[in-house]
Amino acid sequence: MREGTLRPTLYTVLGIVVLLVVAFAAWFFWPVSSRRKSELANPATRFHWGVIATYMGHADPTQLPRDEAARILSGWSCNDASALRQKMSAYASGEINTAFDVARIVWLSELGIAAGYMPLAEREQWSGPALTRVRGAYAGWQPFAEDLAVGRQRWWTEVAGSAQPEQDRARAIAVRTEAASVVASIPWGG
What we know:
Blueprint: H1 3-29, H2 35-40, H3 46-56, H4 66-74, H5 81-93, H6 98-115, H7 123-137, H8 141-160, H9 166-183
C-alpha cells in the first residue's frame, strides 16, 4: 500500500470509530420516555405504581414493545383483550387474597395497555376499584407486601399445584428490596 492511500484509509477508519462512539453515547445517555417515571411523580397515580413495584420491582411495562407485552400476556392465557378483561374480572372477584389479586389486576392493566389490548383511559376502571380495595384491607405497605408474598406462595400451591420454585422465591425477595425505595416516598393513604 502506498503512503498516499494509507492516510485517507486511516481517516476513514478513524471517522467510523468516532461515529460509532458518538452513536453509542447518544443511545446510552438519551433520556427514555417512561409513563411510569412521570406517573410516579404524580400524587394521583403514584400509588398505582407502588403496587406494581411491590409485585414486580422496577419492572416498567410502559417500555415494552407491543409484541413483547402481548407475548407476556399470552403466558397469562390472555391472547386478546377479551381474555385479559376476563382474567382481571376473575381477580376482582377474588382468587387468592386481596394483595395478590389487586397487584395482578394493576400489573395486567399496564401490560394490556402496552400490548394495545386496552386504552390508557380504561386503566382507571380496573385500577381505581382495586386500589381502593387494597387500601381498605391493609394498614400500609409492609402488611400489603407480607400478604402479597403469602398470596404468591398460595398461588403456587393452590393454582399451579406445586411448591414455589426457589428461583421465584428468590426473585420475590429481590422485588421487596427493589420496591422499598419506591414505596418509601408513597403515602399509603394517597
